[in-house]
Design a protein that fits this description.
15% of the residues lie in helices and 36% in strands. It is of the alpha+beta class. The strands form five sheets. A ten-stranded mixed beta sheet has the order 1-2-4-3-5-6-7-8-9-10, sandwiched between helices. Strands 24, 25, 26, 27, 28, 29, 30, 31 and 32 form a nine-stranded antiparallel beta sheet that branches. The protein is globular. 49% of the residues are buried.
Length: 637
């Protein structure tokens, strides 16, 4: 059983906003007569089913340590009223002004409650983590601290158009927003609220084709603890927040061996953060004595303070010296890079969720489709911590007015047996006529053992992560004027330093949710090469699919299939499709609703073509259906 100071109570409530819309909230509070700080998690997730298990473990634990932990469904989602703050044209899939206005209203209302001490912290994961940062910047006087985990914003892909994950997440978000309120919590109002939100729905993906920072603030507005897992695209945003922190607005970061989400391993650290900033206490929690960055590197925790760290130096590797490419001898000093269109099939998941198929497999096949520059076996271990970059001198294109297309760089650790392990990667969409370009790779933390080689692999395509160039001429590189810069951490950096220890808390047991897996489970990831058609097809089906029966009698059944196809030599043949079905059922009262969504994306030399479909059913009968056709010029992404 969890050990903490207070007994706790849980209650559900409706929180009225200034315009009369009521948001649905679940509160866990300590049993005390004294006012306590509030921890607010404000999300588009459905708190009575999709996030219920995690909420029921973490929020009571915070409440037991003297906080009012509040989880609120955003407008137009879950059991909240109003229309979704969503629609096309916004990078993060939402009307940001409306989202922030609702959030600021919530802050004012909770701060005025007699059980609130007037101090509020914001908590969020993924999209909600990004919302917490934006809301703190929007209303810094109302927020004392933030904990953000894997905030959406991601690694900049150099302007290249994202293909993977884009339509899958858009389909999932549309499905979740299209689900109705639950009659167990809103009674007979559910059908009217459902119709209102269905009429307002719009796909949210077009402006996200070329992801940037997702609208995240450049700096933290209030003291912030940021958490992410290596491999998650949010690592770049976390390190950016950390590097831009100031003495007035402290930032601490933890990067660990986790998938996307808020790991239990850091909950004790979040409590120390809350206690320091939200409670009046003479006890030193040690929150500000922790290193700026704690990171997991090849099986151990390391600490760096400050960040950027004086123990990390930039080491440059020339592509004609320490790194060399094998190939046919030529009088031309340029190395030409032109890749088959299925280069990238072994990229793994853009956002890893700890499924076996999410991890990039051995990269030898990908390396064979790329131009590789290898080092000699390393005489001693090489520890990387930070953001590598690649400076390339390109051959001027034959058509001076045409962009050279995408440049993709992967950095791999090659073992003596030839196994190639992906360390990091980056991409850049080059502009016309630029002779020198810089490709920023994603943040990495890894120790390359002695005897292993470094491998830099270059390609001009990376499907299905990136939409291919419609005219793939490739690009030429002058190795004598090209350099890879690595952030190398001193091997003795930890000498004499106190060990980094993260203590996992004892949390309440999750509610007993019964999972019924499909009788015939689909492969998590299946790739088919149709040799006669020169076609590659990849199909993904999450292992988390299935039917879940919650303690209150709700049955949530969901199934998702994502597919990609491309012809080896035809870039405009690229297609992506995601189908998602979610069914909610309460057998005891005969309530049965289903939402089916589908997103299909194709491309032409000048446009992206999107077809989105939504069908909503009640008791098997169609109550709503709609299609959206969108044609998005490539030069706007």
């Amino acid at each position: 059983m969890p050990s903490h100071s207070y007994r706790t109570v849980r209650e559900d409530a409706r929180v009225p906003l200034a315009d009369g819309t009521e948001l649905y909230a679940r509160l866990w509070r300590p049993v005390t007569d004294d006012p306590v700080p509030v921890l607010l998690e404000y999300s588009t997730g459905r708190l009575t089913d999709r996030t219920a298990s995690d909420d029921a473990r973490r929020h009571p634990w915070y409440a037991g340590h003297g906080y009012a932990a509040v989880r609120v469904d955003a407008r137009g989602h879950g059991n909240s009223g109003g229309r979704p703050n969503g629609g096309s044209g916004d990078e993060n899939g939402g009307n940001r002004d409306g989202e922030l206005a609702d959030g600021a209203d919530l802050l004012r209302r909770f701060a005025a409650e007699p059980w609130c001490s007037g101090r509020i912290g914001l908590l969020g994961t993924g999209p909600a983590g990004a919302t917490a940062l934006r809301l703190a910047a929007h209303a810094p006087d109302a927020v004392q601290a933030v904990v953000t985990a894997c905030p959406d914003g991601g690694h900049r892909l150099g302007g290249a158009a994202l293909a993977t994950d884009l339509h899958t997440r858009a389909t999932a978000r549309l499905a979740d927003a299209a689900l109705p309120p639950d009659p167990l919590y809103v009674a007979d109002d559910w059908r009217a609220l459902w119709r209102e939100r269905l009429d307002a729905l719009e796909p949210d993906f077009p402006a996200r084709f070329a992801p940037g920072w997702g609208g995240l603030p450049d700096t933290a507005a209030v003291p912030t603890l940021a958490v992410a897992g290596w491999g998650d695209p949010s690592c770049a945003a976390v390190l950016r927040l950390l590097a831009d922190g100031t003495a007035a607005v402290p930032v601490r970061a933890v990067l660990g061996p986790w998938p996307h989400g808020l790991p239990d391993d850091v909950l004790t650290e979040t409590l120390r953060w809350w206690d320091h900033w939200l409670k009046d206490t003479d006890t030193d929690t040690g929150a500000l004595r922790t290193p700026a960055l704690r990171s997991w590197i090849s099986g151990r925790w390391t600490a760096d303070d400050p960040w950027p760290s004086p123990d990390v130096r930039a080491v440059r590797y020339g592509l004609d010296g320490p790194l060399r490419t094998a190939g046919t001898a030529s009088d031309d000093r340029h190395v030409h890079v032109r890749s088959p269109q299925h280069t990238g099939l072994d990229a793994g998941a853009y956002v890893p969720l700890d499924r076996p198929a999410d991890r990039p497999p051995d990269q030898r096949e990908e390396d064979g489709r790329s131009v590789c520059f290898d080092s000699q076996p390393l005489p001693e271990p090489l520890e990387l911590l930070g953001t590598p970059s690649l400076r390339l001198r390109l051959r001027p294109p034959a058509d001076a007015g045409r962009d050279a297309g995408p440049i993709v760089a992967r950095l791999c650790d090659v073992a003596p047996d030839g196994t190639s392990t992906l360390l990091t990667r980056g991409a850049l969409l080059t502009s016309a006529g630029a002779p020198d370009v810089t490709v920023d790779l994603a943040a990495a933390g890894h120790t390359v053992p002695s005897g292993h080689r470094l491998r830099l692999a270059l390609s001009c395509t990376y499907w299905p992560w990136l939409w291919p160039d419609p005219e793939p001429a490739g690009f030429g590189v002058d190795p004598s004027r090209s350099t890879l810069t690595l952030p190398v951490r001193h091997l003795a950096a930890d000498a004499g330093a106190a060990p980094v220890v993260l203590a996992s808390p004892t949390l309440p047991l999750p509610p007993p949710v019964h999972l019924t897996e499909p009788l015939t489970a689909r492969p998590e990831r299946l790739t088919v090469h149709d040799i006669a058609r020169h076609e590659w097809r990849t199909e993904l089906s999450p292992a988390s699919d299935g039917s879940r029966t919650h303690p209150d009698g709700l049955v949530r059944d969901e199934h998702t299939v994502t597919a990609y196809r491309i012809l080896t030599a035809a870039p405009t043949s690229a297609q992506a499709r995601s189908d998602r079905t979610v069914r909610l059922e309460r057998p005891a009262i005969g309530w049965d609703v289903t939402v089916q969504t589908r997103t299909e994306l194709r491309c032409t030399p000048t446009h992206f073509l999107a077809h989105t479909h939504l069908t909503a059913l009640e008791a098997g009968g169609v109550v709503f259906t709609r299609d959206w056709q969108q044609r998005i010029p490539r030069d706007t992404v």
